[in-house]
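REQUEST
  id: r-88c1
  op: predict_structure
  target: Cysteine hydrolase family protein
  payload:
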Amino acid sequence: MTARGASAASSTSALLVIDMQNTLVAIAHRPSATVAAIAGLQARARAAGAPVVFAQQQDEELEPGTDGWRIVPELAPAAGDTVVPKSAPDSFLGTRLDAVLRARGVTEVVVTGFATEICVESTARQALSRGYDVVLVADGHTTSLRPATSSRYAAPEASVAHHNEIYRNLRFPGRRVRVLPAAEVDFGRGTRSCTPGASAPG
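RESPONSE
  id: r-88c1
  status: 200
  body:
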């Protein structure tokens, strides 16, 4: 069931691309594969007329107008896309993201981007709390590289897999929560349903 009680086939999905900016992608785990997965989703979303929305971090390390702040060229916004500036891990906090999605009649957010444990996780949970269904793209989010021997963080591949598994098993009243590989996201017919616990990469 979708957030508004409609069938899966009638849901209106938007692709959300979080913080895929030059400085951040430069420190990301498997950046090329993640960028390629998101680029494919962008092409399919635009072809289907689905909204493509970018959340773009700006702060003292990502100063607007600098090269590091810019979205990577492979994922550059196109005419008709929306860019939402943000300054917190939650892409909804103090931004116009919710207004943008509601104005387009969006009921489901397809979540991609950087970093898995911080901005991706914070935004996906907040989307659920605000009444949206969520698809976490299993191979469309990533996190930072870190030294295996000196970091208390989980290794990048373990962190991505961990969050995918959480969302595969997350139950949120009145919401549909799914994890799909990028290849299975179909904006033309609403994203395909899958049974709880179904496998997906990562």
